[in-house]
Sequence to fold (566 residues):
Amino acid sequence: MEDSFSGDEDYYYSDRDSLDGLENDEADLQWVPPKGSSTKVITRESLLAAQKEDLRRVMELLSLREHHARTLLIHYRWDVEKLLAVLVENGKESLFNEAGVTVIDDADPMLPLSSTVMCDICMEEVAGDKATKMDCGHCFCNDCWTEHFIVKINEGQSKRIRCMAHKCNAICDEAVVRNLVSKKHPNLAEKFERFLLESFIEDNKMVKWCPSTPHCGNAIRVEEVEVCEVECACGAQFCFSCLSEAHSPCSCSMWDLWAKKCRDESETVNWITVHTKPCPKCHKPVEKNGGCNLVSCICGQAFCWLCGGATGRDHTWSRIAGHSCGRYKEDKAKKTERAKRELYRYMHYHNRYKAHTDSFKLESKLKETVLEKVSISEERESRLRDFSWVTNGLYRLFRSRRVLSYSYPFAFYMFGEELFKDEMTDEEREIKQHLFEDQQQQLEANVEKLSKFLEEPFDQYPDDKVMEIRMQVINLSVITDTLCKKMYECIENDLLGCLQLGTHNIARYQSKGIERASELSTCWTSVNTTTDKRQRSDADTSGNVDWHFPFPSLFLFSAHCISVLQ
Fold:
C-alpha cells in the first residue's frame, strides 16, 4: 500500500505556477516570487560551470593547479568554507597532507628522452619517454601506471587514485590518468571523467540529485545545510535532507517509518492477529463467519475457536478432556488486545491522512475549472474585475491541505510509543496531544470551509453574492495561513523542541510555498588565466596530456574561463 505523493504527478503541483500572471490587491495574500532564490538548479549544461567556480576559488586562494584543488575539494566534500576553516586553523601543510596533495614547486616532471628509467613495479628498464613522474617524485613506466589506473577506475576509486609507491598517499594527477588510460581504453577514460564531474554532486553535501521519476537530470544546490524543502525546475517538490517527497511537519525519520508502514504488511499482520486464528493442522489463518465456536479449515480440520485446539477424540463438544477454553490466559489476551488497539489507532490516523491526500489530488484538478470560471466572470459585464482572490485562495487551500495531510503521520508517532515512549509521561503526552489536536481540528474546519467556497459556481452568481464569497475566501485564506504557522510553532517549540533523547527537525513553514530553485546561469569569457596556462604547460610536460572531455557539447571550453553568475 503506497500513499506517497511521489507516485503521482498530480502531487507535484507547482505553487508558483498556480499564481502565474495573477495579481492580488491584498498584500498579505499575494504570492510574490523571492527576489533571490537561495537554491539553485544545476542542469547538465551548468554542472561543469558550478564545479569550475569552486575550483577557481581554491586555485586562486592557494595558487594551486586544478587537479590539486579538486583533490582538496573532494576530500572536504566540496565544502569550500570547511576547507578554509581547516587552512586557518591548521595551516597549509597540514591541509595538504591530510588530503594527499603534494606540491613541489621546483620539481621537474620532464624526464630526459635519452635516459632510461628502472620501473620498481615491473623491474624493467624503459626509455624516459615511456615513464611518468608524479608530483610526489615517484616514477614508474607508463604501462604499470596505466594498469594501476584501470584497476582503480573499475573499483570505483577514480576520484582519488593514489600513487603506486609503498606508503605514498599522494593523489595522482588527473590529467596523467586521463592521458594514459585514453590511449588503451577511451571508454574507461570517459568513465573516469564522468566520475570526476559527478563527484561535485555525489560528494557534495550542499548539492543533491533531483529524485524525480523519470529522472530530469537536474541537481539542486542549497545555500546552507539544513532541513528544507525545495522545488526543482521540473516541478518535483522534495525534502533536501532525505530526498523523499516534501513531508513537513513530519520529520525525516517519522516519514520514513510511516512510508514503510504503509508499504509493508505490518498492518495486515495486525489485522490477521485480531480477526483470525491459525489452523492447528495446516497453520493457515481462518476467519470465523458464523456464531458457532466450532469452526472448520479448508483443509478439513475442525478446531475450537475459543482456544484454538483441534477437535477429535479428546476435544469434542460432547466430551472434553483437559479442555481449558474458559481459563483466562493473561499474556495471550494482552497480546491480542494490544494488537487490536494498535490496529485501530493506525487505521484512525491512516484514514484521515488518506482522506486529505485524496482531497489534495482532487482539488489539484480544480485549477483549470477555477481559471475557466474566472475567465467567464471577467468577460461578462460586471463591476468586479479583479479575481486574483480566487487563485490565491486556491493556492492557500493546496498548502493547508498538504500540511493537514502530513500532520496525521506526525501525530501518529509524536503521541505513540514507538519513538518517544521515554520522553514524556502519560499525563504530559495527553496534555500535548490535546493541544496539538485542538489546533489540527481548527485548521481542518477552516480548510473544509475554504474548499467549499472555492467550489461555488461564482461565475453564475450576481455581483452581491460574488462579493460575499470573495470576502469569505480572503478571510479563510488568512485564517488557514495563520493556523498553519501556529501549528508549526507548536510542533517546533512545545513538542519537538522539548525532546531530550533524540533530534527531529522539520522544514520551516513558508507561507509563500516551497521555494522553487532558480537555474544556475553560466557565461563564457575569453580570458586565459596564468593558472590555466601553467596547468596546460604542466600537463604537456608530464606525459604529454591531451585535454579532452567525454561530452563535447558541454565541455568545449578551449581557451575559455567559466564563471558562475551568482
